[in-house]
Amino acid sequence: MVLILMGAPGAGKGSQSRELARRFGLTQISTGDILRGHMADGTEIGVRITDMMNAGELVPDDLIVGIVRERVREGDCRDGFILDGFPRTLAQAKALPGILAETGNVLDTVISIEVPDAVILYRMNGRLVCPACGAMFHVHYYPPRKAGVCDSCGSALTLREDDKAHTVLSRLATYHERTQPIIDYYGGEGLLLRVDGVGDKAAITAEIVSGLEAGVKWPK
Question: Is 88 a catalytic residue?
Fold first, then answer.
């Protein structure tokens, strides 16, 4: 099984993709995590993309397509995977069938987690991350036991540069301009499952699983 999870920054793609990966025995591929790893390690790719990522801009198509092509060839993707954060442009979406064909895979379903911009801003402005162990918290939804301190390792929590309000607004504008057309593209292909991303996390997961098991696609 090959799935794509789509949605604006902060729509909940990461948490939902991790849960779906667990339930269906799939590998989660988060291109955002891969890119941030390059930045943290100071690789050639990381140096190239740092200013783009911090400004909320998209990484060039050729670079991200190459990263995904290399990742899906790894052994843990043999039994299927979930793409979280790819594709983000129509060019990337059109490159994906060729990437999948190289590994004998086809795309099964594209899940669009839909959340209003106002909710996205509220969510992301309170999101905190531990720079030491990567644990995630939120000042409203999932606060740490001690304010500003990671429950897991005791390090000071930070607000990621790309979660700051001005960057989130830029990322949302980019999403609507560049990524929203992909939703229409996959809808036309009969591959799209639309899900309301506002509400209880477990209920959203249940809606996704129900849609996958029933083979529900949009348009019906």
Answer: yes
